[in-house]
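Check out a protein:
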Amino acid sequence: MDPELAAILLEEALRLSLRRGWSGPELHRELRRLRKCWAPESAGPRDPVPGVDAGLLVCRWPPGHPLSACPSFLFLCGLPPDGPRPFRAVFNSRKTRATPRSAPWIQALREALAHHESRPGTWLGSFGTPTYDLVTCHALSLEKPCIVVAPPHRSLSFRESYRAYGLDRPPQTLVSCLPGRSVCPPARVMQCRDRLLAALADQWVLLEIRRGGTLEKALRDELRLRPRPAELWLPAREDAASGGGAALQSEFPHWVRERFQPGPSRRPKPPEKPSLPTLPSRPMTALAWADYLFHYTRSRPGPWPGQNLCEWARDLLEDAPWADHTALDTLLRILREGRLRGSEHLIRGGHRVVSWTAVPPGELARITRWHPGLIRWTFEPYGIAVRRSTLKALGVRPAIYTHPRHYERLREVDRFRFQVHDPPQRSWKIEREWRLPGDLDLANLSPKHWFAFVPTGEEADRLRRHLTHPVSIVPLCGE
C-alpha cells in the first residue's frame, strides 16, 4: 500500500475510534502518537516486530456480535495474522497474583501446552494476567507463531506497553483496538480483551471458568454466534470457581469436550492464610544477635527483581523447585545469585536501596502482620544476617522517620533514608529500618561476617542441595 494512503487510512480509523468522548486536543495528541507508531524505525532487539510498520486489520463481526458496536478494525504491528491454523487461545477466570506451581489450573495448563506443542497452529496470547502471561511466554520462548492482543494502556501506545511489561522477545503479530491510551474503564478493557481473543481463536483451551462470571458470558455469546471446538482441561465441577466450564459443556456438548486425563481429581483446597513457623524467643543464643542487621525475604508473586517475565514463566511451566516464590524460594534465589538487589519500591525519590532491620528473628513476631492485599506476611523468618560494622563500612544508615513535609529539608545524600512518619495513620518506627544504597554483592563479604537463616534444619538442607557454593546457613530452631 502507498505509505501516504496508508497514513490517511490509519488517521481516519483513529478518528472513528476516538471521536466519542475525546476533546480536540486529546484527539490530535493521539494522532501524533499514531504517526510515530506507524513511522518506520530501525530494527532493535526490543521492537515487537523489528523494522515492520503499523497497519490495520479489518474485522467483519457477524450481526449482533458484542464487538460490532466498536470500530471494525484493529491496529497492527508486525506481520499480518495469517500464520498456521488453528488460532488457539487459553481461557481461565482471573485469579489472585499468587501462582503456586501445584495449583490445579497450572497443572492443567502445563498438560495442555505440552499436548499442543508438536501440533500445527498459532497461539493467541496477551499480557496482564498470569494465564495470558504464561501462554505468551511459552509461545515466545519456543519461537512458535504467536499473535499478542495488547489491551489499551492508560498512557502508553500498545507497542510501548508491550515493552514496558517486560516481554523481551518480539511476537509475530501485535494487535490492539487502540494505538494509544484507552477511552474505556479498566474493567471493560479487560472484558473486551477476552471477547476479542475468543472471537479471533478457532480453538479454545478452557481451564477454570467461574460460574456466572463475565468470561463465561463472553464465551457463551461467542459459541452461540459462531461455534468452535473447545477443550476442557479441568474436570467439570458444579462449583462457583469452575462451574462455568460445566455449564458451557452442558449447553454446547458437541463443541465443548473434556480433555483432562483420568486420575485423582485436581480439586483445589480453599486458600488458607499460611502459619508462621514457631521460633524460640532467643534462637541460637550462642550468636550475638545485636551485632547484626537482618534482611528478611518474603514471598513474591510474579517475577523477582532482576528476573524477566518469561524467565518466571519458564520456571513455573517447568515446575522448578523454586517456582512458588515463597520466602524460602526468594532466599534461595539470592544465595544462588550471590546478590541482594536494591529496589525502588515505596522509596521516595526513586532511590534503589536494600532494606535491613535491627529486629532479630527472636523478636520478629511483634512486628509481623498478615497483609491480605498482598496475600503474605509483612515479615517471615527467612533471610540474611550481616555484621552491622561491615554494612556501616559499605554505607548502610538508619532510616529517617519524619513527616513528608520535611523531605525537602534533608540533604540530598540522606534522602534515600527517608521513611514517612505520620502517626497514628502511618508509623513504622517499630521496624527499626536501616537502608543500604544500591545492591549488595555477597561474594565481596567475608564468610565470617554474614550467614543465612531459616526456621528449621530441613529447610537449611534444602537450600544446601540447590547451592553450588558453600554458604553458612543457620537453622533458628537448632538441628
User: Anything to note?
Assistant: Residues 160 and 305 are 21 Å apart (CA to CA). Confidence is low (pLDDT under 50) at residues 38-52.
